[in-house]
Design a protein that fits this description.
Radius of gyration: 22 Å
Low-confidence stretches: 338-343
Mean pLDDT: 93
Distance between the termini: 50 Å
Shape: globular
Strand content: 15-25%
Number of strands: 16
Number of helices: 16
Structural class: alpha/beta
Length: about 450
Amino acid sequence: MSGTPHRYAIVGTGSRATMYVNAIIERGDRAALVALADPNPKRIAHHAAAVEAAGLPAPAVYAAADFGTLLAETDPDTVIVTSVDATHHEYILAALAADKDVISEKPLTTTAEHAAEILAAEAASAGKVTVTFNYRYNPLHEKVAELLREGAIGEITSVGFDWLLDTRHGADYFRRWHREEANSGGLLVHKSGHHFDLVNWWLDAAPVRAFAKGRLAFYGENGKANGHDRGYERVHGSEAAADDPFALHMEENPTLKALYLDAEDEDGYIRDQSVFAPGVTIYDDMMALVDYDSGVTLSYRLTAYSPWEGYRVHFNGTQGRLELLVVENDHVNPALKGPNGASIHGTHAAAEEGRYELTVHPFWTKPTKIDLGEYNRAGHGGGDTRMLGVLFDGDTDPHDRSASAQDGLNALAAGLASNASIRTGQSVAVADLFKLEK
């Protein structure tokens, strides 16, 4: 393909940046990674080396604090933000001020104030913000959207959503920077934002009020009481962690070793903390009731210490009920190592068994099972590949799944209102939280 390549810069070069770096490398004839920024130079160097190894020009490298200089000197068309959640707004606002487009990992940000600032900045900018809610692109979720919009169960009246993170995936949030609410907003913002966005998209509605309960029931210092704590603070160098099913052995994974273990001397960030070490300020057991502007009510629960991973979602309607069950993996085998084993959760499908069931239950007739063929459990159910096609290739998207800054705010709203409800013990109106007009 001829023409000038689209110019990208990435800020935040942890493991999540890998998907975007690889996507740009694969499209080297029409996409160029012109700059990388991060507080840690060794993480930057890892991704820069991957670009050079592909025979492409090396990106310019910058400290995160020099992001303004990056914008001025490299003039990217689009900035990709994959930094720590609580810093997203810094780079989004700077990019919009320079009239650049932004692709931001979820969540959009972690506070209502910063979300409002981003929307105002976007309105004044020639750039636009896209939030990467990849679950929208999962073919199962696409089919749910089609069935609901075709009226398969009539008018939707309520939704139930139960998401289970297993002791591989769920545990990982409690050993890294996400374990501190100040960094991630907690799981109701960082993880549940995916789920709240799905419901918002399925319903074509926005949350208006939430009442929630949450607690740290399993991880953190609960490990002493539940018998799982082996007494070490981090895995590397600990004999007690050798056969611990909750341990992350970074030296067994070349990417994690390069990005984190070998880079510790630059910033002191420890990626393999014990999930039972002190200092956890997020919840691992949460439930929320969310009211929508359409009149629909959502009942939601997130458990981060399940023996299996997956989710159940059901929709009640005036003409029946729709149910989706997804088993990402039916158990966790701690003997498995590697990219799809017990050490990490990533783009690969888990080695254990998985399945799905999508069923429509009309009134007064037999239920109908919807068969979509074999379910791809890798890359968020195949959603990552589809999303990258829309983001980087301009693929046609008849389901309008590209999420805007407003979509990012709506997903954040349910999480922040739920967090505020947990703190106060009262239901919280989104309009009050975001100081919006009622």
